[in-house]
Amino acid sequence: YCRIDGSTDGEKRDTQMDIFNQPGSSKFCFLLSTRAGGLGINLNTADIVIIYDSDWNPQVDLQAMDRAHRIGQTKPVQVFRFITEGTIEEKIMEKADRKLFLDAAVIQQGRLAEQFKSVDKKDLMTMVTFGADQILSSKGGTYTDEDIDALIAKGEEKTSAIQAKLMTDAKHNLANFSLLGDDAPDTFMFDGKNYREESKSTGNLINLPQRERKRNYDVNDYFKEQFGTATSSDAVKKKRKGPAIYDFQLFDLPRLTALNEKDTDLSLKKQEQLNLIRELRLKAKNSPSIHNARARVEYAESMEGISEQIDQIQNNLYRFELSIEDQQEKERLMAEGFQDWTRKDFKAFCSSLEAHGRFDVASIVEEVSLECGKDEAEVKRYFVAFWINYRRIADWQKILDRIEKGEQKINRLRQIRDALKEKVARHLDRVHGFGLHIDAKETDKKQEDLKQSELARSTTLELLEHSWPTMHFNYGLGWNKGRAYTEEEDAFLLYMMYKHGYGAAERIRLEIRRALHFRFDWYFKSRTAQEIQKRCDMLVKVVEKENEALTTRGTNYDGQHGNALLEASSFVN
Q1: Are residues 386 and 349 in contact, defined by beta-carbon separation less than 8 angstroms?
Q2: Which helix (H) or strand (E) holds 62?
Q3: CA triplet 261, 267, 268: central angle to 5 degrees?
Q4: Phi, psi dihedrals of residue 328, rounded to the nearest 5°
Q5: pLDDT tier at 549, thresholds 50, 70, 90
Q6: Which residue has the higher pLDDT, 513 or 286?
Q7: Mind listing the pLDDT tens digit for each residue in 503-524?
């Protein structure tokens, strides 16, 4: 046999179903728990269903029967239900049948509601002409007062009969339906008085019960309350909640948590001693004095003895406080952290690290201080503490991965910028013929030298603004397939990338629309920002390939290699 209950896993369940449903299977029966089977049970080879233990919910038993009525069943299915006479199983079946009757009544009522349609012309004529033949065929006559009284009495009798029939039918109405049966006693009947009528409220308001406050259940408190052993100190045994501390605030959480727990335990013990002092004072108030000759009491039970005991407890209360060393350490740990930093501030700090990298401290400090409203010195202190104690954050690895991806983007943008500068410098060198070359690795130094050169009157952008139409590209093999852009359009795109930076596709799109040079170039002017960015990415690859090829050939741009410069220019052109 096969078996599925609450301890059967999904893999074993599927295996047993496959074995049972195999043609000529050796498994005779399949034991199922109606509530543990769940969905997806397909036993289409079984033709006998035996329900041994009926459920209070009839839908569970119906689902158990449906497991044999699956697609692929080729035999008539027989269902047998075992019920022990004179036991609660009879009541279970009775309640299940009434639940199914209620379900069928509700469904049937919904079906009838859907069948109501608008009355057509034939139905209207039938209602209008109902009884018209008797009226037209009747003969006229006179009516006396006795006839009118008899007519009224007959009408009252007929009305009473209709009302009695409605009252009888109302017993089976869904509004008065009861799962206990028609002969069940009324639960509102007590000592011969029915309280159902008194509970009915007048008006349309719904009388809701009063809401009870939720109470956490504690088995220890329950037994203490039942046996009367609860003490007043149990009510105060609650852990004091300190300030909320998060991992991104860079506290030493293990040590700080240990100190807080130690402080909490000492506070609870101190509170117990204070409660003991309160009880002893009440006891001392009602205790006789040791000097009272009428009462013979021991010294410990006298007022003086209890007062001495209270003084001893008060003198030892200092033991239930943190030591000076622990207090100083706790203050130091709290000062090292950043308790006023919120999660929003931490997200802004991480975003700034992704955007600028871990080495551009000035930009990070300026951006975070402006966005979060914090002092720059505090942001610098958090920057240093973050890189020293970043492992205290739970998901520090994910944060570092995001920062490294941001730095990779920054390095890539820097490479693109240097490649564009080298291409522009090579173009200006070829056009103006001054031996001008800006090395990407010595950009700052060459820019200072450029201010002292003969071209100090105009900047590189001004020179490029008048000479970009003569720029040429070496597309190489395979780049011309399906190329819809002209070389002049590519030169303008490179000029705009040099001017606005890589990634400013929307600015470049607006520059194209304003450029008089392309006022009739409708294809170029109609390109979207995404299409322009895609073309810019292709141009960057072409430029990097040119620079790599020239670097491999060993071509430089000083005054001693003018012929080599011309050869390289002709190669690029």
Answers
A1: yes
A2: helix 58-66
A3: 95
A4: -65, -40
A5: confident
A6: 513
A7: 899 999 999 999 999 989 899 9
